[in-house]
Amino acid sequence: MNKYFSENYFQAREKFRKSTAKLKKSNYHIIDDLTIDVAESHPKKKEKLLIIISGTHGVEGYVGSAFQLFFIDKYLSKIKDKYGILLIHSLNPYGFKNNRRYNENNVDLNRNNNKDFSKINYFFNKNKLFKEENIFNIKRAFLSDNFERIRYNLLLYKLILKHGISKTIQLIGHGQNKYPKGLCYSGKNKEKSILFLDKKIKEITKDYKETILIDVHTGAAKKYNLDIFTANKLNEIKIDVPFKSTNTKKKGTDHIGGIENSLFENSKSKKNIHFTLEFGTINKYSTVISLNYLSYLLFKENQITNFGPFEKIPKIRQKMKKAYFPENKKFKENMLKKTKDFLERIINYQ
Ligand SMILES: [Zn+2]
């Protein structure tokens, strides 16, 4: 079981490169020696294409990489005559290597996929509550740790009381384009990783009738659970998967700038299906406690990274790794079990 999991980015990349030795491979440099690694295979008769992405949020790449290695080990040879396969390892290698969610420019890649950044009018940017309390304006928060934590919790629970849990999750994760050093920053232009992904999807999908894109994340589901989200409409998906639709455009809180835009805007396939997987890593009983823990950790990590005290960086990054990748047997076993269940539903779908 441990062979699928890695201690760090370089080890994960090495395992990925070795296990895909027989496939067509390429890599794309992002910064220094950090690369997005790509492996692909194409059957004679091209009908369906399966794309699996790991490490969009760098630190979540530990589990994402294990998901890909498990897929390669258990399913690749069985299905490669039927499916086209595109594996994208570590879309955000800087974040993976440094145990950060964001990339080398403090950009959240899962908010960066916008056609026109000048037209963005994030709900967050207009939200009064955020303006007043502004948890994203990191500079305000030079308070003692305890006081800061209490203030943060008050804000979070105020949001939950006002909007409910699921909308609060959306609000917090919704992204912002005002504070380059803040949380969930969308950037002002598409980042290298996203330009690469757009181009790759445009090229590779042109002969396929159908494309399924799976983007693997970890974090704010209940621990040991797997939440499956899709931007498709519920009735578009015939696959027997217990998913939650994020197609909430009517409510005005839909996911802006997400990875799925790369698929829907660039794919040449007639039919396109998107899944975001979220493996829960924190609290077994409560999504709220998980959300509270993770969002505060992200807030602190971002604050320390951008404003100091910089000597605290190694410690908080270790905390990040632990939070997004619980290195115990039970978590790993559960994660692989859920992965197996999910992949079999995808593969058996006609
Ligand atoms: Zn994520």
Task: Explain what the structure shows.
- With 350 residues, the protein is α/β, with parallel strands linked by helices.
- The protein has a single domain (2-347), classed as 3-Layer(aba) Sandwich (Aminopeptidase), CATH 3.40.630.
- The chain contains twelve helices and eight strands.
- The protein has helices at 9-19, 61-79, 93-97, 123-126, 128-133, 145-163, 165-173, 192-204, 260-266, 287-307, 313-324, 329-347, and strands at 24-31, 34-41, 48-54, 83-89, 210-219, 226-230, 244-245, 271-280.
- It has an eight-stranded mixed sheet, sandwiched between helices.
- Helix 6 (145-163) packs across helix 7 (165-173), helix 8 (192-204) packs across helix 9 and helix 10 packs antiparallel against helix 11 (313-324).
- It is globular, with a radius of gyration of 19 Å.
- 44% of the residues are buried.
- Mean pLDDT is 87; it is low at 248-253.
